[in-house]
Design goal:
2 copies of one chain form a homodimer. Chain A has about 250 residues and is mainly α. Chain A is about 65% helix and about 0% strand. In chain A, helix 5 (about 80-100) packs across helix 7. The two termini of chain A are about 30 Å apart. At the A-B interface, helix 2, helix 7, helix 8, helix 9 and helix 10 of A face helix 2, helix 7, helix 8, helix 9 and helix 10 of B. Chain B binds a DNA duplex (18 and 18 nucleotides) through helix 4.
DNA sequence: GTCTATAAGCGGATAGAC
DNA sequence: GTCTATCCGCTTATAGAC
């Protein structure tokens, strides 16, 4: 999702073919569900970026509407309240997040490669969808004013499952004993930070934005840190693979 | 700072001793600098908590004033604009942060204990002043809309110095080679997260808030992860010291 | 579905009396 | 320093025509 397909949809928006004269088969008269879905997604996508930058209260529905190219009243036709739009954004972020991480950290897998994959997937998410990550982060930082129930129902179980997997590996002697909850807290933080704090990172690195090479380096370091901490791997093949840009 | 001395200041606020009659020595007529400083601090303290919870746009100066027990117009006497108040909050957070971390990560120190101290100090900060940490985090996540210059001038050099120290340890062969920037990114994230994401953590742990024992466990795991990643330490003395509450 | 019009309230900020 | 009064713009949301 994210930035895709906005342009095409926008150009075709106002006024489809006129109805009265030339149409052979009468167009279906039920509410246009497809259009509804497209508009919902497009509005949510615009809202996601704006909420990420300015926070819930820092964005007006008029601004979202303007970015999509519709009127604010029209936006209110699709989302009855600003809060509904905000929740929809969080839902979308969460859906994709759960989808991407489904099945990773399977307790039957090899711990090292399972953890590697998990870290890679989370970093990919930070890279592909920083806005979503940021909206979620600010909601959590604010103390879950809108999304506490959903987080409890959908996120916490997923996180607990990962902790549980790690604990099973410990119990089976496949990794060294460690406080699994805190290890996972750190994994989440270390991967999330590449979305949330990338502005600060860019400033430290003296560049405009993080590059692909930065994300590769991040993946290597996070994986090394985590794996070594539970006695899984000494060091990656090459000591420090040549950075491409930076 | 934070929550201290609010009560006493509030009770004595309205109307000091009347001026006309009984006073022997005429009270100094210059602007009361001491009062100014106290009020500034008190307002900033209240604002810090509110900004942390609701974000810059989610807080009205009237709400801040109400929490302090003054009128909104009176608040505007001390801070001419809402933005000035917000910057003052960030300044305060940054001042204390730099103060606490000053001198840590000295390149002449033993790397292991220097890093341990650094991690402990950052975690203590997350624990003592979560609101400040959160305000800062949301400002960064939002892309530094107000505080870019200050971050560039005061924070980035401090962060770079820490990276530099780590690099010197690598060059001197005192620690194993590693991508120092990313290691530090992870250290910042792993310590910061115990302030910013503590709500989510509490939900995962099934408790109201993080306890002292949680912070001790965090310190142990973060230190272990970081030190091991550069070949500094095998494991802490006891395998898993008995948790006190949880 | 999309538009115009408008309700009803809160936001930050200023002016001036005391 | 603190108060009263007030300006004005922007906000979410609704009503109803087309």
């Amino acid at each position: 999702m994210a930035t895709a397909k906005r342009a095409e949809a926008s150009t075709q928006r106002r006024r489809r073919a006129p109805r009265g004269a030339t149409a052979g088969a009468p167009p279906p008269r039920r509410p246009d569900l497809r259009r509804r879905r497209v508009m919902d997604a497009e509005i949510a996508c615009a809202a996601e970026e704006l909420f990420a930058q300015h926070g819930f209260h820092g964005v007006s529905i008029a601004e979202v509407a303007a970015r999509v190219g519709i009127s604010k009243q029209n936006l209110l036709y699709y989302f009855p309240t600003k809060e509904a739009l905000y929740r929809r954004v969080l839902d979308g972020v969460l859906d994709e997040w759960l989808e991407r991480l489904r099945g990773l950290a399977d307790p039957d897998k090899d711990p090292a490669s399972a953890l590697r994959e998990y870290i890679a997937a989370k970093l990919r998410y930070s890279r592909d969808r920083p806005s979503g990550s940021r909206v979620f982060a600010t909601e959590i930082i604010a103390g879950l004013p809108f999304y506490a129930a959903e987080l409890r129902e959908r996120v916490v179980p997923a996180l607990r499952a990962q902790v549980e997997t790690l604990n099973r590996w410990v119990a089976a002697g496949r990794v060294e004993p460690i406080d699994a909850v805190h290890l996972m807290f750190i994994v989440w933080a270390a991967t999330q930070t590449y979305a949330d704090f990338s502005h600060q990172m860019a400033l430290v690195l003296g560049k405009e934005a993080l590059s692909a090479a930065d994300f590769e380096a991040a993946e290597e370091v996070v994986a090394r840190i985590v794996l070594r901490s539970i006695g899984l791997e000494a060091a990656p093949p090459g000591p420090t693979p040549a950075p491409r840009d930076r």
